[in-house]
Specification:
mainly alpha, 176 residues, globular, 10 helices, single chain, 64% helix
Length: 176
């Protein structure tokens, strides 16, 4: 099932690393990408917990990055080779990107999200698999300073934060 979500995970992680690039050289870029990919993987597995969910995503499509680009201001300068070079943007999932931004900016929420994976059909996700998301060292934090900055991520994280909380706390009683 992971293969079914891999285009969404790859595209959404790429969107995050382009919107919030690494500060430093090639090693910093790699560390930033790993952190983004881990956060996006957790978010995608939470968003699409079953094979049926993944199949529906494959049929309907994830929606693309248009709103995320607008929220972050990335849509201001279109590229010359818009069609082919930007086709990956159609595989970006806005909810997954928002949830990943929440996880990257809130360690406690990331811990709860990885713990919640044990309940789904993606139970292969152990906390050790997500070490750079859950316990980043100083090098990880320096490399992904923009990617983990709560104030910078707030516009994206705020889009679907409440839905992530609902997913992590099913069965909560609603109080009017």
């Amino acid at each position: 099932m992971q293969a079914d979500l891999s285009p969404v995970i790859a595209a959404t992680a790429q969107w995050l690393t382009r919107a919030y690039p690494a500060s430093g050289g090639a090693l910093a870029s790699a560390l930033c990408e790993v952190q983004a990919r881990q956060a996006v993987t957790v978010a995608a597995w939470l968003r699409y917990p079953t094979e049926t969910d993944a199949a529906l995503l494959g049929m309907a499509g994830p929606g693309g990055s248009a709103r995320l680009d607008w929220v972050t201001g990335a849509d201001a300068a279109p590229c010359d080779d818009e069609d082919d070079a930007q086709a990956w943007r159609t595989w970006v999932d806005e909810v997954v990107a928002s949830w990943a931004a929440c996880l990257l900016s809130d360690g406690e929420l990331a811990d709860r999200a990885v713990s919640a994976l044990a309940e789904g059909s993606h139970s292969t996700g152990t906390p050790a698999e997500f070490r750079r998301l859950l316990a980043p060292d100083d090098g990880d934090r320096r490399a992904a300073a923009l990617l983990r900055h709560p104030d910078l991520l707030a516009p994206v994280a705020g889009l679907h934060h409440s839905r992530l909380l609902d997913r992590l706390h099913p069965g909560r009683t609603l109080i009017a």
